[in-house]
Design goal:
The protein is α/β, with parallel strands linked by helices. Helix content is 41%, strand content 18%. The chain folds into two domains: 219 residues, Aldehyde Dehydrogenase, Chain A, domain 1 (3-Layer(aba) Sandwich); 184 residues, Aldehyde Dehydrogenase, Chain A, domain 2 (3-Layer(aba) Sandwich). The longest helix is centred in the first third of the chain and has 19 residues.
Length: 451
């Protein structure tokens, strides 16, 4: 097994060579072919991901592999990342894109296919090299992806060492890699993200998800509820953008719960049964790792709760919101906490109380046609994304039906201890050199004009 030093040396040599001859046409061709390889092999990759990570749903991983490959490839079309990327005659500023160098990418077992794909596409788009440090439960997937990408690089006359990976990943090797590269992209647990920001290198991390889903009064519940169920059940709830709660007006609560039950949800409000589920999902105050990515039937079985066959999600009524109940936490399985509100301010207060437990900076999902309510949420909640009337888990990272940047890494701003408050993309992996020409006919304002 090669040392981190050897991997980085090979990456630097390859990156320098590639930067010398790579055109916009070539980087775009390679990035698109990376996506097409994942798209064409979506089914075997989904099977491999489920078997190695032991979490998630095969059918949803197929959809994810195809969906992310297609939308990210499409989003990169026409984006200039080589040479002059803009000229402004008015300001005299010309911008030139330059590579960052060697990128360290820390990737999770929850997304063992599309996150390496996405990171590799963004790195190549900027003429960088990339070294992937996978989670130990996704190293087989990473090896197959990297082998496939090597074939694409060879075919296009590019150095294979532009993309490498750590064969036997560990926390220590990941830390060494991050300290040795030029920039870091860390997608995974908060401990790893914190390590990335402590590496001494520019780093892009993610914050914890805990998407609060607020249902306003002016929507069709028969239309909204299936979207929420789809989002919460997708890939057995391991997506950071998955809906974690429903916050519903007290007068609509019973009707909404019945609509959920009609669509395959099982509702729990009995305190003893709620306690059983709580004690199963959380061990010593933290999410039970054996519940992560398991389906609703498996979760119910583990908790000793009988639910109907075909149950897609479990709804649970906590004792309170915020720090008073563990159900305020992120639940990486198909379980949704339910809350009632009397006023819109109270709905936002419930959401914020839960975000203060976990998920500050990430996202809120709102089903509403009231623009004032939506924009009030954006002005008051500590989140970087407010997704409106969509399936949050599959749309929050970019969609053909919204303008959010397609990605697998969602920045959470200062609220989530992140360096960016937007969806991560190729533009975060390029340096920009600015040429400052003198402004023609520039006029110095008088003191009176300024003051």
């Amino acid at each position: 097994m090669e040392t981190i030093k050897e991997l980085v040396e090979k990456a630097r040599a390859a990156q320098k060579e590639f930067e010398g001859f790579a055109t916009q046409e070539l980087v775009d061709k390679i990035a698109t072919e990376f996506a097409k390889a994942i798209y064409d092999n979506a089914e075997p990759f989904a099977k491999m991901a489920v078997e190695e990570s032991r979490m998630g749903r095969y059918e949803d991983k197929v959809k994810k592999n195809r969906g992310k490959a297609k939308i990210i490839a499409n989003s990169l079309k026409g984006k200039i990342s080589v040479g002059v990327i803009s000229r402004n005659e008015e300001t005299g500023i010309t911008e030139v894109a330059r590579p960052m160098g060697v990128i360290a990418a820390i990737t999770p077992c929850t997304n063992p296919i599309v996150t390496p794909m996405c990171n590799a596409m963004f790195a190549i788009k900027g003429r960088n090299a990339i070294i992937i440090a996978p989670h130990p439960r996704s190293k087989k997937c990473t090896r197959v992806i990297v082998d496939m990408f090597h074939e694409i690089l060879r075919k296009n006359g590019a150095p294979e060492d532009l993309i490498q990976f750590v064969e036997e990943p560990s926390t220590d090797l990941s830390a060494e890699l991050m300290a040795s590269c030029d920039a870091v992209v860390a997608t995974g647990g908060m401990a790893m993200v914190k390590a990335a920001y402590s590496s001494g290198k520019p780093a892009y991390g993610v914050g914890a998800g805990n998407v609060q889903c607020i249902i306003d009064r002016d929507v069709d519940f028969d239309e909204v509820v299936p979207k929420i169920i789809e989002g919460r059940a997708f890939d057995n709830g391991i997506i950071c953008s998955g809906e974690q709660t429903i916050i519903v007006h007290e007068d609509d609560y019973d009707k909404v719960i019945k609509t959920f039950e009609k669509n395959g949800a099982y509702y729990i409000e009995d305190k003893d049964t709620v306690a059983k589920l709580r004690n199963t999902l959380f061990v010593n105050g933290a999410m039970n790792k054996f519940c992560v990515g398991q389906d609703a039937l498996k979760i119910a079985e583990m908790a000793g709760i009988e639910v109907p066959a075909g149950t897609k999600v479990i709804l649970v009524k906590p004792e309170t919101c915020g720090k008073g109940d563990l159900f305020s936490e992120e639940k990486m399985c198909p379980v949704i906490s339910t809350y009632k509100w009397k006023t819109w301010d109270e709905a936002l207060a419930i959401a914020q109380a839960n975000l203060d437990v976990k998920g500050r900076g990430h996202s809120t999902s709102i089903h509403s046609n009231n623009k004032e309510h939506i924009e009030e949420a954006a002005n008051k909640l500590t989140v970087c994304r407010v997704l409106v009337n969509q399936v949050c888990s599959t749309s929050n990272g970019g969609s053909f039906f919204n303008g959010l940047t397609p990605t697998t890494t969602l920045g959470c701003g200062s609220w989530g201890n992140n360096s960016i408050s937007e969806n991560f993309s190729y533009k975060h992996l390029i340096n920009i050199t600015r040429i400052g020409y003198p402004i023609k006919n520039a006029k110095v304002p008088t003191d009176e004009e300024v003051f």
